[in-house]
């Protein structure tokens, strides 16, 4: 049944009576599924609307251009740190926005496409492992976020407010920090999703070059299997050696 058509309350009431009078189990079941889908869609619109409205309350002035920033890949043993930045359009809403870790890979990819279609801009930037080793995570985060801001401003977009998930980095005077922002702010959630999709795609792409580590599966995180592979094979060129010294004997290739 097509649940894309809009029905008024009177339409729903009338059609429900018709279905009941029909009496066939299959028709009743299909109608019940349709009603549930409509109720679920309404609940999702309401949930996501709260994410959009919450970040507007943080902005100093109505109509402020709000950039949401978030990172993924802070903790893995291998692969880049990737940050995302998104300025969403006010409409249409991007349904499904949430902390990227709570979404399946398939759902993240679908929502990432919606984000790109329904945003003023959506940018990512990745920091290679060598820079993480040399500069440390905090400095890499600052540089990555500044890079995303620059990409956006180079397109002539004036940013009024920068919402950053987590604790203060003080990398920009417009920075406003929101703890658990990827579950509260639409643009931070969107940034989290596009960054996660970008980084996961990269780890899957390089996995055949380092088959012993199974990056396509673990995405560089410290699973028991990944740690054992490091112990057996040493470090690859994409490992963060400063993260791995406690459980392996250094060797590089």
Structure description:
- The protein is built from nine helices and five strands; from the N terminus they run ααββαβααββαααα.
- The chain has helices spanning 9-22, 25-58, 105-117, 129-135, 137-153, 186-206, 215-218, 224-233, 241-244, and strands at 66-72, 81-88, 119-127, 161-165, 175-178.
- A five-stranded mixed sheet has the order 3-2-1-4-5, sandwiched between helices.
- A hairpin with an 8-residue loop joins strand 1 and strand 2 (81-88).
- The protein is flat.
What is the number of helical segments per DSSP (H or I, 4+ residues)?
9
Class based on secondary structure composition and strand pairing: alpha/beta
The average pLDDT is 90
Largest sheet: 5 strands, mixed
Helix % is: 40-55%
Low-confidence stretches: none
Secondary-structure element pattern, one letter each: HHEEHEHHEEHHHH
Shape field? flat
> Rounded to an integer, what's the Rg over CA atoms?
23 Å
Proportion of beta-strand residues: 5-15%
Cα separation of the termini: 57 Å
Question: Could you write a compact summary of the structure shown?
Answer:
By secondary structure, this protein is of the alpha/beta class. It is built from nine helices and five strands. It is flat.
């Amino acid at each position: 049944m097509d649940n894309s058509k809009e029905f008024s309350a009177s339409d729903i009431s009338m059609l429900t009576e018709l279905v009941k009078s029909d009496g066939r189990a299959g028709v009743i079941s299909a109608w019940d599924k349709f009603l549930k889908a409509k109720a679920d869609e309404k609940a999702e619109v309401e949930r996501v609307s709260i994410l959009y409205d919450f970040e507007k309350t943080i902005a100093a002035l109505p109509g402020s251009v709000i950039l949401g920033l978030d990172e993924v890949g802070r903790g893995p043993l291998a692969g880049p740190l990737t940050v995302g930045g998104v300025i969403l359009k006010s409409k249409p809403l991007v349904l499904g926005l949430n902390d990227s870790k709570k979404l399946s890979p398939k759902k993240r990819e679908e929502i990432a496409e919606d984000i790109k279609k329904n945003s003023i801009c959506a940018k990512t930037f990745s920091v290679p492992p060598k820079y993480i080793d040399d500069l440390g995570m905090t400095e890499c985060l600052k540089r990555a976020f500044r890079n995303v801001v620059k990409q956006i401003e180079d397109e002539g977009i004036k940013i009024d407010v920068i919402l950053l998930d987590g604790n203060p980095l003080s990398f920009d005077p417009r920075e406003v920090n929101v703890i658990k922002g990827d579950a509260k702010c639409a643009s931070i959630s969107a940034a989290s999703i596009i960054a996660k999709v970008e980084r996961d795609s990269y780890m899957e792409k390089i996995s055949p070059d380092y088959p012993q580590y199974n990056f396509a599966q673990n995405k560089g995180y410290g699973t028991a299997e990944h740690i054992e592979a490091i112990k057996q094979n040493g470090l690859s060129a994409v490992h963060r050696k400063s993260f791995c010294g406690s459980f392996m004997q250094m060797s590089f290739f």
